[in-house]
Write the structure tokens for this entry.
Amino acid sequence: MNIVVLGPGAIGSLWAYSLHQAGHTVALYSKQEHDKLPLQLDGNTPITLANNQPVSLQNADVLLVTVKAPQVIPALEVLRSDLHPDCIVVLMHNGMGTAEIVASRLPNNPLVLATTTHGALRQSRHQVLHTGQGSTQLGGYNSKGNQCDFLQQVFAHALPDVYWNENILDALWLKLAINCAINPLTAIHQVKNGQLADEAFKPTLHQLLDEVHQVMTCEGLTLSRNELNTHVYNVIQATAENRSSMHQDICHHRLSEIDFITGYLIQKAHDHQLDVPSNEALYQQIKRIEKSWTS
Ligand SMILES: NC(=O)c1ccc[n+]([C@@H]2O[C@H](COP(=O)([O-])OP(=O)(O)OC[C@H]3O[C@@H](n4cnc5c(N)ncnc54)[C@H](OP(=O)(O)O)[C@@H]3O)[C@@H](O)[C@H]2O)c1
């Protein structure tokens, strides 16, 4: 297949390299101005891929979007006119809220959503490390996207394990819930994920998850409050030594994905006339930190 990866950072480069190795014609769209870019995964042989070539987009069967959530809409806007209406658009990022906008701006394209637990780290602009083996879930967002379950095989052949999830929004909501609990707290307190298991964080986590669970229930999810607790504490334990992406973003004075994580939760809570004061407080704290860099 002809596959374009928009945003070849850590996760995008991991997929671009793996899809190329699986035999696909892979091209990149990045913020770099060169026609071609070298790319190396771990210690493997470097490859060279086309970059920012409109012809790659015009011929693309799949556009894999791996920019961070705040960049999805502006990045897609620039290349919208070159995108064929049959091209399958796959959004792979943390957080929620972009799919609604993409679906309205690209109403004819099949839209597929993805979430991955692989770990990737950019060592330099052209070198990426696969730091953690994980799995990926894909699922259709619109009716044309629902017909793209063959992508499971395409992606699984490149970087297993991959599952097609008929209820991808449920998977994204669960990931959002986990992110709402872990990301702002670890970023504000500058702690590794595992430290959230300390007694001191228990009351705050409890309140956050009560609020998140209420919103999820109103959104039609059937997960129980206890199950949500178990998922969150399992992730805290399994990733105890990790620094969350928001913790890293705040450390490096990079804009975080808070608007698409806690911000999305707050927006949905308002839709259902629910109050989520603990989540609002963390949202405001992250926003204040981000604002302090520019003032
Ligand atoms: N890394 C992981 O292990 C991991 C695991 C699971 C999920 N995720 C999620 O995956 C998403 C991507 O994360 P990441 O770690 O890969 O981030 P990243 O390394 O920052 O990659 C994002 C890439 O998008 C590029 N970009 C930004 N705006 C663009 C535009 N308008 N056009 C083209 N390219 C653009 C960035 O370029 P510049 O660097 O030049 O700005 C960067 O190369 C996030 O939502 C993250 O939470 C990451």
Q: What stands out?
A: The longest helix spans residues 168-189. The chain has two domains: 2-166, 169-292. The longest strand covers residues 36-41.
